[in-house]
Automatic annotation (TrEMBL), chain A:
Entry-linked Pfam families: BPD_transp_1, BPD_transp_1_N
Protein's name in the database: ABC transporter permease
Annotated family: Belongs to the binding-protein-dependent transport system permease family.
UniProt xrefs under PANTHER family: DIPEPTIDE TRANSPORT SYSTEM PERMEASE PROTEIN DPPB-RELATED (PTHR43163:SF6)
Stretches assigned to the ABC transmembrane type-1 domain: 95-305
Organism annotation: [Kitasatospora] papulosa
InterPro entries: BPD_transp_1_N, MetI-like, MetI-like_sf
Keywords of the record: Cell membrane, Membrane, Transmembrane, Transmembrane helix, Transport
Automatic annotation (TrEMBL), chain B:
Superkingdom, natural source: Bacteria
Name of the protein in its database record: ABC transporter permease
Membrane topology of this protein: Multi-pass membrane protein
InterPro entries: BP-dependent_transpt_permease, MetI-like, MetI-like_sf
Entry keyword set: Cell membrane, Membrane, Transmembrane, Transmembrane helix, Transport
Domain ABC transmembrane type-1: 79-268
Transmembrane segments: 20-43, 85-106, 118-136, 142-161, 200-223, 243-268
């Protein structure tokens, strides 16, 4: 296990290095000049050159890259071209919204999807088993922003129970208010996420239900519940956990649309603004932090799978995806 | 009775073809709207004679939007854009994804490891975000959106193809083809692709639905087809402010979008059961 951990961590470090190179190169391949965003229309060539010099985009690319990596190594995400504010604290402030939003939605989605998916498989010949499968079909077909619009119309505009959008100016100083403004966004993401999770849980459960080892356990006298707990849960959770890892990672950034519907100041909206303004340090900073999160989540998912399923222990990465 | 499947109860088999039929009807309905919109529309796209936010009826099947344009006309144009977005993205995703996936499956050692690590990271990033980057680099047109969604999805297709091809490459008939001197491009074309085709087609159908959703998301954020084109995503964005006073504009595009995606997903499910006999008993 220790040897695996070392190798897996080395793999993580190499992936991160690779990702930062790709990130940097891809961004510089984008057409458009960040200096244009800083100068007014009709600026003289000298003004544009001065703006370029000020943000350092006139230096050769390898130099810009080593500068960025050097900053990263000292924990500095750089300074925004547009606002001249450091990116790090801004990212941290955005994470205060995005992390609770994502985690709460993730937990809620799992709480909905695991029992629902299991029931959809186990009771697939009953009307409610079929209904659950049908509802999840509907859920994966609904655009997340439209679901958000409907929830706002019903629960905020008509019933007036919850705010229709926005986040308290002073953040979590008033926890009740902050929580209230996150309820609808969390439910929106969780519903859409659980719809696709239900399908994975259902198919993993079906695999287990049709397996020889479950039949053998039953033949040896285990009760259905006992056999499911002892053999089924462990086997079904391996593929589900790898999907969970991917879902969690993509929700972290995929929240951008929901953040837009609910006007939340999260990481996704920061990235959207950064992209629109060609603000390289902001884009790089947000994407670097999220790549790191994606890799760490993948690492944790692999680790958990390995603990659950000894058969995976010979391999470096990934379960049966 | 010879040659028939004795293990699957007939009742279940017929339910599966129902899935396929319902899927075809739903998706076909939208495709029909899209096809008709190419030749005929109830009103001109910029005809604002209807009066603002008129309710359904009175010459306007679904009423009008806040500028007085006919909603049904826009919904029809939107269905054309949705179908185009889905088809275009899936074509790009298939072309790039199959090529990359086959190459990765044939590559050994660190090239394979690097490629799969790269694909894993790419997949963890939501389609919509990659698409936003590409759309920002080009301009907000339907073409950019389709290109962006297609490229983002090609990572998913590539990973699936890599796994499928690896599985096929381990089979005895591939060894037989190799030892008999078949070149590898030929092996791919005549042995590998035909064997992964069923699973691949099902996945591409699912990607079609996801592409339609992604295009709607991009248009909702103002990064899809520019204004004179009525994309469903943009229609919904425009109708958001008047959801409670004029719900038709905020409901109709969403409902059609959901119907199209459900239809295509049902087709995918039906195809999986029909094309891939191995999953028949398991998934029933």
């Amino acid at each position: 296990m220790a040897r695996y951990l070392v190798r897996r961590l080395a793999f993580l470090a190499v992936s991160l290095a690779l990702a930062s190179v790709v990130l940097f190169v891809l961004l510089r391949m984008l057409p458009g000049d960040p200096a244009n965003a800083l100068t007014s229309v009709g600026a003289s060539p000298e003004q544009i050159a001065a703006a370029r010099h000020a943000i350092g985009s006139d230096r050769p690319l390898p130099e810009q890259f080593t500068h960025w990596i050097g900053q990263l190594a000292s924990g500095d995400l750089g300074t925004s071209f547009v606002s001249s504010l450091p990116v790090g604290p801004e990212v941290a402030a955005r994470l205060d919204v995005t992390v609770p939003l994502t985690l709460a939605a993730f937990v809620l989605a799992v709480l909905i999807a695991v029992p629902a998916g299991f029931t959809a498989a186990h009771k697939r010949h009953t009307w409610y088993g079929t209904l659950l499968s049908g509802v999840s079909q509907l859920g994966i077909a609904i655009p997340v922003f439209w679901l958000g619009m409907i929830l706002i119309a019903v629960f905020a505009l008509n019933a007036g129970w919850l705010p229709s959008g926005g986040f308290p100016q002073d953040g979590w100083d008033d926890p009740a208010e902050a929580v209230r403004s996150l309820v609808l966004p969390v439910v929106t993401i969780a519903l859409v996420m659980s719809a696709s999770l239900i399908r994975y849980v259902r198919s993993a459960t079906l695999d287990v239900l049709g397996s020889d080892y479950l039949r053998t356990a039953r033949a040896l006298g285990s009760s259905f519940g006992g056999a499911m707990r002892r053999h089924g849960l462990r086997n079904a959770s391996v593929p589900v956990i790898s999907v969970l890892g991917i879902e969690l990672a993509s929700t972290l950034l995929g929240a951008v649309v929901v953040e837009s519907v609910y006007a939340l100041p999260g990481l996704g909206s920061m990235l959207a603004t950064g992209i629109a303004q060609h603000d390289y340090p902001v884009i790089q900073g947000v994407l670097f932090v999220s790549t790191l999160a994606v890799l760490v989540i993948g690492f944790v998912a692999d680790l958990v799978q390995r603990i659950i399923d000894p058969r995976l222990r010979g391999r470096l990465s990934g379960g049966s995806r | 009775m010879t040659g028939t499947d004795l293990f699957t109860p007939t009742k279940r088999r017929s339910r599966r073809s129902v899935t396929l039929v319902v899927g075809c009807v739903l998706a076909g309905l939208i495709a029909l709207l899209a096809a008709v919109s190419l030749f005929w529309l109830p009103y001109d796209a910029d005809d604002t004679s209807g009066g603002r936010l008129a309710g359904p009826g009175d010459g306007h099947l679904l009423g009008t939007d806040k500028l007085g344009r006919d909603l049904f006309t826009q919904v029809m144009t939107g269905s054309r854009i949705a179908v185009e977005a889905g088809l275009g993205s899936v074509l790009i995703a298939a072309a790039v994804g199959i090529t990359l996936g086959v190459l990765a499956a044939y590559a050994q050692g660190w090239i394979d490891d690097t490629l799969s690590a790269f694909l894993d990271i790419l997949i963890a990033f939501p389609t919509l975000l990659l698409a936003m980057l590409i759309v920002a680099a080009r301009s907000a047109t339907l073409g950019s959106a389709v290109l962006a969604i297609g490229l983002a999805q090609s990572a998913v297709v590539a990973r699936l193809v890599r796994i499928l091809v690896k599985r096929v490459l381990a089979q005895d008939y591939i060894t037989a083809a190799r030892t008999s001197g078949t070149s590898w491009p030929r092996t791919v074309l005549s042995h590998v692709l035909p064997n992964i085709w069923p699973t691949l087609v099902v996945n591409l159908a699912l990607q079609f639905g996801l592409a339609v959703l992604a295009e709607a998301g991009l248009s909702y954020l103002g990064l899809g087809a520019p204004p004179p084109n009525a994309s469903w995503g943009r229609m919904l964005q425009e109708a958001q402010a008047t959801f409670t006073t004029a719900p038709a504009g905020a409901l109709a595009p969403g409902i059609l979008l959901v119907l199209l995606v459900i239809g295509v997903n049902l087709i995918a499910d039906g195809l999986r059961d029909t094309l891939d006999p191995a999953t028949r008993r398991r998934r029933a």
